[in-house]
Write a structure and sequence with these properties.
Elements (H helix, E strand, L loop, with lengths): L6 E3 L18 E7 L5 E2 L3 E3 L7 E3 L2 E2 L5 E8 L13 E7 L5 E6 L7 E7 L3 E9 L11 E5 L9 E6 L24 H15 L2 H4 L1 H16 L4 H82 L5 H58 L3 E5 L2 E7 L12 H16 L4 E7 L6 H21 L7 E5 L12 H7 L1 E7 L13
Length: about 500
């Protein structure tokens, strides 16, 4: 059963004695707060040297496992002041294990207001960054602010090093702390125009034309309603959301195109290697046949020599004739032995070349594994390539695919469509928590969800198998939370021919 939690955040930046200097992009020290049930916890935030000087106030209330975040701000300068590709602020929830989630944009049509968010985490740090668009999937190194330790003893705080920051987007100013904001243009309209311009720069008109058309229409309506705040803000926000969606779709399709190009190159290389290997095998077979014929001829020559020796007691004429034949046969024998030696040397070269070709084919298989690893965690095994889908790609106790899971599997389907000779076996697994029957059913449903999604994206059903094993095939100790997390997974095995299941190993 899903639980609920409400988080309201108020931060006072201007009350700090002095802003902190900007953290290095590699490591950021954050404070993960564990919020107690039904208690109101106040937080103070720290700003970096890049951040605007603003008043932000808040509080945190946790209730039954669901998070709702409200941020109030006053005298907040817009992110567009950074210039370049920067358009907005994004709020992130970061756990101690380094995982993070995009809670959404800190939407600020004016320099004062409040924004609501939601999260399902109980223990996390809060981070605000400047980004090119709201739907980015990784926080950039343009860190604006983050929460300090909670003062309440009821909310324990753990300090941890966060290394998950990405490269900074293109920007013109290092800091906007002392930059004045006196534009008479509506901030929401400026942000909508900047987001649309950024989407055009990414070629979203080509890759997501319908989204860009709707974004352009909403932007035009916002411009026409410049003096009407509420309606203009609604249209501006719709245009921003559509522009962000178009960028996300564009980046995903560009990535898929690049993967398809790489796969096509690898297939062409593998085909050429297979042709060369086949040619080498044919030459080797021909050499073996020639060697066999030479050996037969040598044996025949030896037999004739014996017969000639037995005829030596015959007449002198017969002896002279026989001796001449023996001399000729000896010459033929020597020539055949030389030819045999040459063929043996040639076969050694062919074996060396065949070994080299096998090595090249193995290296190409490794590069193909590398292409799959760009989509999800992949490892090689005796059964074939295994792509691992962790438990976080499914909602708790659910078999339905999350949107981000669908993106990953859609990319896999693109690779599999390019390689129709590969078969796919989807295997679902759980930890040891719950009954055997429940675990088996959940693992089967998750495996079937992945298989059905692949089939819906063009993979022939004859290539697909789906099976659930419940808890009987763990890869880690079920006595620890980390072990149970590793055991909750869906594995996709990719190989030629029939893919057999492994014998179960019970570890609880």
């Amino acid at each position: 059963m899903r639980q609920s939690c409400k988080i309201i955040i108020f931060v006072s930046i201007i009350s700090l004695v002095a802003p902190l200097t900007a953290m290095a992009a590699e490591t950021l020290q954050l404070n993960a707060v564990t919020f107690p049930e039904r208690k109101t916890i106040r937080l103070e935030f720290r700003g970096t040297a890049r951040a605007p000087r603003a008043d932000i106030n808040g509080k945190v209330e946790f209730h039954e496992g669901q998070a709702q975040i409200e941020i109030e701000f006053d005298d907040m300068k817009p992110a567009v002041l950074f210039g370049g590709d920067i358009t907005c602020y994004v709020v992130w929830a970061v756990s101690r294990d380094g995982t993070y989630s995009n809670l959404g944009e800190l939407w600020m049509p004016k320099n004062s207001g409040n924004v609501d968010f939601s999260s399902g985490r109980k223990s996390f740090a809060l981070l605000i960054t400047a980004e090119p668009y709201a739907l980015v999937n990784q926080p950039s190194e343009l860190v604006m602010m983050f929460n300090a330790a909670a003062e309440s003893k009821k909310a324990p705080t753990d300090v941890f090093a966060f290394t998950g920051l990405g490269n900074a987007p293109d920007h013109e100013l290092r800091s906007i702390a002392n930059v004045a904001w006196d534009s008479e243009r509506p901030l929401d309209l400026m942000q909508a125009e900047k987001a649309y311009e950024l989407a055009q720069g990414h070629q979203a008109d080509t890759y997501a034309p319908s989204l860009m058309r709707d974004a352009r229409i909403a932007l035009g309506q916002a411009r026409n309603l410049r003096s009407k705040d509420k309606a203009r803000i609604d249209y501006s926000r719709r245009s921003i959301a559509l522009s962000s969606d178009s960028i996300r779709v564009t980046l995903g399709r560009k990535e898929a195109e690049e993967l398809e190009r790489q796969i096509a190159e690898r297939r062409a290389e593998m085909s050429a290697l297979e042709g060369r290997a086949q040619e080498a095998e044919e030459r080797s077979a021909a050499a073996w046949e020639a060697l066999s014929a030479a050996q037969i001829a040598i044996a025949e020559a030896n037999r004739l020599q014996i017969e000639a020796a037995q005829l030596q007691d015959e007449t002198e004429a017969s002896v002279r004739r026989t001796q001449a034949e023996l001399a000729q046969i000896g010459q033929q024998k020597n020539a055949l032995e030389l030819e045999q030696a040459a063929m043996i040397a040639s076969m050694a070269g062919l074996r060396k070349e065949s070994k080299k070709l096998r090595k090249e084919r193995e290296e190409l298989s490794g590069r193909l594994e590398g292409a799959l690893s760009q989509v999800a965690e992949t490892r090689d095994s005796a059964r074939g390539l295994i792509v691992n889908l962790p438990d976080i790609l499914f909602d708790l106790n659910k078999a339905a695919l999350k949107p981000e899971t669908q993106i990953v599997i859609a990319k896999l389907s693109g690779i599999l469509l390019m390689m129709p000779d590969l078969n796919v076996r989807v295997e679902g697994h759980t930890d040891a928590t719950g009954t055997d029957g429940y675990n088996l059913t959940l693992s089967e449903e998750r495996a079937q969800s992945v298989s059905s999604f692949l089939e819906s994206h063009g993979i022939d059903s004859t290539r697909l198998q789906a099976v659930g094993y419940g808890k009987i095939r763990p890869v880690a100790d079920n006595e620890t939370a980390e072990g149970r997390k590793k055991n909750r997974r869906v594995e996709i095995i990719i190989a030629r021919g029939e893919i057999a299941g492994e014998e179960p190993t019970q570890t609880e």
